[in-house]
From TrEMBL, chains A, B, C, D:
Name listed for the protein in its UniProt record: Inositol 2-dehydrogenase
Native organism taxonomy: Bacteria, Pseudomonadati, Pseudomonadota, Alphaproteobacteria, Rhodobacterales
Domain Gfo/Idh/MocA-like oxidoreductase N-terminal: from-to ranges: 2-119
The EC number(s) this enzyme carries: 1.1.1.18
Broadest EC class assigned to this enzyme: oxidoreductase
Organism, scientific name: Tabrizicola soli
Length: 335, 335, 335, 335
């Protein structure tokens, strides 16, 4: 049994804690939150211990590994502490909103053999990962084009958006990682364009965009296209398509159930899509924990690590520069 | 070029005439209708000749074959005349509503080498026939169960229903033929049940049913299930499913197009189904003419013939007896 | 928190124990199994207590309710003990394979106010229950036909089949309950036919069938059709369709994920279906526990109870009689 | 009856001739081809006259309108002759590969009231046009993003590609028109990138690309993305998606039929897509003729005209400039 402590008992931390408790080869060693009642509520339900500080969790002999689900600006510091304590760590994305801070963190942990996993949960989605597996199996031949559709069900509150780092660093970053995951080859050039269509007044205030298209190009000419919107009224729209010279693989949206209605006015009418990420990526969150448990058991690097988190942020920076300058930006210009 | 005369210029005759005129290896030799203006309208558009009688068409040297699309009660007689004249014939179903009359016709034409094709158009539907081909190719192994869903978009007018011969002989008969086509083995036993749900008062007056379930069983125990309704508000519902010991083949409904709508209330909302048979079986009607042209060219028996028409009627009779006696009826009891 | 004891730690009991432990308003009070190590394994993972006997669980003050997941022939006895002890009970289906024993049990517990829930999990499947909700909401108007497709991914071992009570009491019984659930009106007549196609030699030895069609008819003429097979190579096939005078609702199969493959030979190729019931009805098993927890909290009768278990068995008996006598059997003949 | 002459009896001209002959309100007045036997073959089948020259058709009193389906480099000249003769004209796309030549033609025919229709058949596809209609009906609210997937089933022969004008002017041009059709607002900026992935050696020789992504932006910030490939092994891939602030409309691929196969290895396996445009856009070609017939009858401008042909070419030129300069190109830079 791998004994895992969860730092941060917000919505996503509570979910991770429950998944760890239910996992056949892991136990919930304890929980911590800056707001004590949040940690206590999890402890009551699961029987897990409450840590009085993150440091206490790192110091505990009863903790084999930690999961960081605290506020974004604490991620890099806690990650450094985890590595210093020799505790394998699963860190929610992003490492930090500042590329400079991420690079500093990278320098500090350079050479560590402590397993570090980044919380890019979508790589563990059964559908999206099946696209990657189909490519690896040669089912679609050499990859040519990747199309990622990623739209949130609705705008987050202004308070959240203000500190989110902007749509590229907050939302698109998942898709930039997905593009790297599916492409299997590094991106060398980026083009992006942003519009203010969902809530122009709010976006003006924030200096942000709500509608984004990104085109990524690799050295060999492979193309990946990302389309983002902050509002898909029909639900959380998450699709991945890969075209190769022998075929195509598509990971379509997942629904709450498969009931359809047919009347004199329409056929095949289904429910809106699963909303939001905790429901949509339920299987992915389970598989993410399994990957972490296995990496800890085998003392190996997880399949998605720190450098993946850093490179996704580099692509976000390149996209921001492309939006500003209305031209293709070479990745090496920003990294 | 096979020169084909069309007898009967109602809705289905007009469609057949157009299909023949457009066919690359056939020409429309002429048309006849008891109501002359109906024939003349077709002639004006296509440049085809108008025959003053069915007999004139049978007698003409410029006619290689005939298509019978006249009123049901004239089919058997015209078919006998066609055979006597040595003209290959494509006859719309049913041969006759009376099994005795059909048997008499069979006796009269016994031994003829004139190609006779019955208008069971659904056998030529690309989807339904692909189910049969999948079975023949061994894709689903030995056949175990067939499920045929067949529902009309709405009740026909009472005037039509009165002379239709009842739901079993008028509507289910297509599905009984489809069951024979897919099963590839003769049915030995029949169970059927009928209800009056769509329009109970009308059905009471007609002594008919509007909602039917038929179970067909072959000597080896294969099962075919037919569900019929006189009203599917969502359109003309036409599905065929075959389960075998290695897999399943399904021919799903065909739509007018593939546009779907997704909003805050629903996803995947599509148009109602194609309505009615001329639209739904457009490709089937084309292929049916091709089969006839080819059979005439090659002087061979068409893939669906007189005996198929007769046996479908036998199964309808067995189903009617089952409804009356509420028990399994052996096919040999009625044939 | 409702404290629930789980009796029986086979595959399904272990799953229920984990679901109870993970449920926000329930805790796993303890477990029991005739084979002690099975119970201990669950206890180790969850921290729950091990009971030395079922009686100990019924007697415990720390147990608010019990879930019976032991061998079938112990269900009725344990259920009687639970009622005697005043403990609300969720009992896996079937109550017993003998209708006489079930009737005796019914007599013994007559008049009890203890909540009793039967484990017909499919009623809680989000898709299937959405069909029922659509009917209740009037979305499809008056119900006319129900078509239930229910096929196992493969034959269970002979040892299991021998004690299963036969396909009607073991497998079809779920579909008979689903038909009652969807129809919303009692079945008055039953027709059934059985074949030996999947493994004829084995079925001959067992005196059982592996391929079943059942037609159920209500007093008002509504029709429900069930098609069963012991082997669907493509996975666990679970579909429910309801036709009404205003429309149709279909609950389609659920898949492990939505990745499809498209090549020069095919398009839309998806994975085989989820296999088997624990995976397919994952959401249903969660919702079943929620219903039980809520019923216990509210001291009310669960939405699916003892009489539902008894009536499904009555329909199975009527179907067996129909197979034997090849005629429609009135339900009152067997109940 | 509108009497239409068809100029050019290649594959697409023959198809148009047959569609005109079958149209209820049109007749095929005659055909012309530079290669006389091609015209004669059509005449034999349809009974239409053979014109000895295009001029003869323009001069004929028995011709109400003409359809131009000759070689691309003759389109502009014939179009000018048609306008001079006062004959309404349906001209296959492109008007010309040279924007200068198109502009010269525009100048020459400026002010004409002769109905001119451009052969952008995809606007008449029932699915794609239903997307446009959904937008006009307000079903998806204000439009934000359009995603057009357009991939040919395979590379055309080198001889064809050499004279095609390149992928942007030959293939993407259809999608550029579709983007304008769906956007309902003029494009002001274009970004494009091209790769050589399908056949790099051939593309090097031709100085062309086989894999294209285009991003189009309107003044209000609406985004349209086009992904093109010269090879989709799974068939002719033609999809249109529109996202608005109230919902989404998708026109999915059309299939030859709806039969799917399910085995132990897979489920839902369908046939490759319809291949190629004559099959895929069958309904569209019918509707295109209907629009032309109606425009001629009503002496009105067709819904898609000369300027649409010119503007699509302008966008293609802007995309070519963007590929060369790796930056966003303003449409006014090229027009």
């Amino acid at each position: 049994m791998i004994r895992i402590a969860v730092l941060g008992c917000g919505r996503i931390g509570v979910m991770h804690a429950a998944n760890i408790a239910a996992h056949p080869r892991a136990t919930l060693a304890g929980v911590y939150d800056i707001h004590a009642p949040a940690a206590e509520a999890v402890a009551t339900k699961t029987g897990a211990k409450v840590f009085q500080s993150a440091e206490a969790a790192f110091a505990s002999r009863d903790v084999d590994a930690v999961l960081i689900a605290t506020a974004t600006d604490t991620h890099a510091g806690l990650l450094e502490l985890a590595v210093a304590a020799g505790k394998p760590v699963l860190c929610e994305k992003p490492i930090d909103l500042s590329l400079a801070r991420v690079n500093a963190c990278a320098a500090k942990i350079a050479g560590t053999s402590v397993p570090i996993q980044l919380g890019f949960v979508r790589r563990f989605d059964p559908g999206h990962s099946a696209v990657r597996k189909a490519i690896e199996a040669g089912d679609i031949g050499d990859l040519h084009q990747v199309v990622i559709t990623s739209r949130d069900p609705g705008l987050a509150p202004e308070a959240y958006l203000k500190v989110s780092g902007g749509i590229l660093r907050d939302m698109t970053i998942h898709d930039l990682d997905m593009a790297r995951f599916i492409l299997g080859e590094e991106v060398t050039e980026v083009f992006a364009t942003g519009s203010r269509l969902v809530d122009p007044a709010l976006m003006d205030r924030l200096g942000d965009h709500d509608t984004i298209t990104v085109v990524l190009i690799t050295a060999s000419g492979k193309q990946a296209i990302i389309t983002n919107s902050r509002r898909a009224t029909y639900g959380y729209d998450q699709r991945v398509e890969a075209l190769g010279d022998k075929g195509m693989a598509i990971s379509e949206n997942r629904r709450p159930h498969e009931m359809t209605l047919h009347t004199a006015s329409f056929t095949d009418r289904a429910e809106p899509l699963l909303n939001f990420f905790i429901e949509r990526y339920r299987e992915g969150f389970d598989a993410e924990i399994s990957e972490f448990v296995e990496a800890v058991e085998q003392k190996r690097a997880p399949s998605v690590g720190f450098e993946d988190g850093r490179l996704a942020l580099v692509l976000a920076e390149a996209a921001l520069k492309s939006i500003a300058e209305r031209r293709v930006v070479a990745v090496k210009e920003v990294s």
